[in-house]
Amino acid sequence: MKKIIFKFTHIAIISLAVISCWYFFINRCSLQKTSTLNRIDQIKSIKTISNLEKTIDNDRIKSCLNNVSSVNKIALTSLIVADNPNYVISAAKSIKTIIQNTKGLNFDKIVIEIENKRLKEESKQLLLKAGWDFICTVRHIYSADDSKLYKHHKETYTKLITINMTEYEGIVYMDTDILVIGDIKELFTFYKKIDFINYFIAVAQDTEADGKPRDRFNSGVFSVRPNSTEFSRLMRLRDTNITDLSFAHGEQNFLNHCYKDKWYKFDFKFNGIVWILQNYEWNLKKMTIDVRIFHFTSIKPWDCMSKAADVCKLWNDIPI
C-alpha cells in the first residue's frame, strides 16, 4: 500500500513539474511573441513617421522662404506689396469673389509677399480670414535695371516666381485689383495648353486706353505650367542686355518680349480690362454678359472715375 501511495505521489510531483515547465515555456514564448510584435509595430510606426516627414518635405514649396506646403495639384497666386494697403483690401475682396465662382474646384490660394516688403500681421490675418490659404514669402526678383521702371512696377518681376513653383501642375496668377463676377473654373485648365514648344504662357490680349485691342498680352491674369528649366532661362534672359525692351511696365513687357509669338490666347472675359467698358458705352449690364473677371488696370475702384462708377460700386459693396 505504501509503495502505491509513493508511486502516486511521485507521478503527481513529476506531472506538476512537467505542467510548470510547459506553462513557463508557453508564457515565455508568448512574451517573446508580444515583444517581437511590439518591435514590429515600433518599426512600422517609425517608417510611417519617416514617410510622413518625407511627404511633408516633398510637398514643401521650395520657392517660399517660410515653411509652407502644397495641398492640391493646382494653385492660385497673387503678389501683394506692403507699400499700398488698398491692394491688401482688394486682395481680401477679390478672393471672396474667386471662391464664390470656383465652387467644386480644389486649389491652393497663395498670397506672395516679398521678403524685404513683408505684410503686417494684421494684413495677413485679414487675408487668411477672407479665404487665402497661406502666405508665401519669396525673395525680390529684380529687373535688369529697376531705375527704368515706373514706381508701381518695381516689384512685379517677382510674379515670375510662380513659374518655379514646381510642386504644382498648373498655376493661375491674378493681380489683386480684380473682381470676379462669373464662373472661372475653365481658367484653371489653360495650363494644359502649355507645351514649351508652341505655348509658354496662357493669357488674354491687352486693351488700349481707348478700348481697342493691342498686339500684345496683359499679364495681370495668366496661367503657367511651372518648370524650373524655363524659370532659369527667363532669369538668364533678364540678366542680358535686351536693347529693344521697354522696362516701363515691368514684367509685362519682359514676358511679351520673351513670349511674343508663344502665348496661348484665352478669351478676354477672363481678364476684362475696365477700359473695355467704352466699347459697351460704359453700360455695365451689357459688359457683364461677356466678362467674368473685371481688371482695374488704370481705373482703381478706390479711386474711381465717374463713368466706371457702376463697376467700382460692385467692388466697394463686397464686405471684408
From TrEMBL:
Top-rank lineage group of the source organism: Eukaryota
Transmembrane segments: 5-25
InterPro entries from the UniProt entry: Glyco_trans_8, GNT1/Glycosyltrans_8, Nucleotide-diphossugar_trans
Keyword terms, alphabetized: Membrane, Transmembrane, Transmembrane helix
Family under the similarity heading: Belongs to the glycosyltransferase 8 family. Glycogenin subfamily.
ATP-binding in keyword set: no
GO biological process: glycogen biosynthetic process
Entries under Gene3D superfamilies matching the protein: Spore Coat Polysaccharide Biosynthesis Protein SpsA, Chain A
EC nos: 2.4.1.186
GO molecular function, one term: glycogenin glucosyltransferase activity
PROSITE patterns: PROKAR_LIPOPROTEIN (PS51257)
Record-linked Pfam families: Glyco_transf_8
Protein's name in the database: glycogenin glucosyltransferase
